[in-house]
Structures are given as C-alpha cells and as structure tokens.
Amino acid sequence: MESIGSILIIVVMFVVLYFFMIRPQKKQEKEVQNMRNNLQVGDEITTIGGIIGKIVSIKEETLMIETGHDRAKIRILRSAVRCVDVHAEDAQD
User: HSE on the CB side for 92, CA within 13 Å?
Assistant: First the structure.
C-alpha cells in the first residue's frame, strides 16, 4: 500500500512540474516563433545582442536591418530577433 502512495506522489509531482514549468515554456517558444515568422519590412526590432534597427529586406532565414543615423546595414539571422519594438503598420500612423 505504501508503494502505491509513493508512486502516486511521484506522478503528481511530474504533473505539477509539467503544468508549472514545461507547458508555459513551450507556449512562450511558440509565441516567439510566431513573432519571428510574422516579421515585415519596416518593423523596428531589437536583436538578442542588443542591436536596434529597422528591417529593410527579408529573405528565407536572414534579415537586412538599418541601424543608426548613418543607416548602416547589417545582415542578421531571423532567429537573432528578440522582439519587435514598433510594427510597420504602427509606424505609418
């Protein structure tokens, strides 16, 4: 009888672990992937390295961004985008 209780406690611990750690992490990863898939020319972004720029062209897995006052262009990977600061349609308003 004690072994059933021990097994039940372990199973409950794994369920709690799943709902409080694994599930939210997978949801966040899905949101980030969705954000990266919906990038558009004109979006102002921040990279994971802290570079801020505006997207000027998009290819399969790379983006060309303009940074600074001199409009220097940098090619980055799509996976290097941390967040979109200003969406292209918001900037036009």
Answer: 6
